[in-house]
Amino acid sequence: MAKYxxxxxxxVYDEDQVNPLVLWDELSSDWVCPLCKxxxxxxxxxxxxxxxxxxxxxxxxxxxxxxxxxILSNLAKGCEKQYLEHEQDLFLKLSEYYQNLEEDLPTQAxxxxxxxxxxxxxxxxxxxxxMADQMKDRGAKRAIVWSEKSTNMIASLIERYxxxxxxxxxxxxxxxxxxxxxIYIGAHVPEICPVCKVPSLKIHEVKRGYxx
Length: 212
Fold this sequence. Notes:
Layout: E1 3-6, E2 12-14, E3 43-45, H1 65-81, H2 85-99, H3 110-135, H4 138-164, E4 173-177, E5 183-186, E6 203-205
Antiparallel strand pairs: 1-2, 1-3, 4-5, 4-6
Helix pairs in contact: 1-2, 3-4
């Protein structure tokens, strides 16, 4: 018997624990994770870790002012966790400054977004894990794990959108966790975030007008 792990929320489908017994291959193609609703394709068979030789790449990216604002806001949250009030205040002021700058946001085809997500999952995250392990940085490791799970969630949403199109968000709501970025589509906010386990008060409904 085998175990299959959801790459979004970590739910484990253990063939030994299922009653009545339903093997993974016997599940229908439209089966979804019972916790985060990720599709079957978001699961990977649990196996012993294999170490691959990873090559670090230089990242050349023209960050938008909105992206810079988000990064600074996340740094402020990190300072809050460490009780660095002065640094937190500075990052918040910088974040607000960039958020208020006028800028035309670039558009990107869904296929290009999917390509970027696939590259992150296949190369960038394994490299980030390797570096965090080498530095024995537990804080970085936790941030990478959360980010990787949220990226897997984005991959599952892209797959669902390709299948359902506009019906994906029709007559329902979209919620986002302010801590890890997890996106949940459903009628009601989940009691806890499937990724970072914070309570529902940290998960907010996205206002209509935003586009997935």
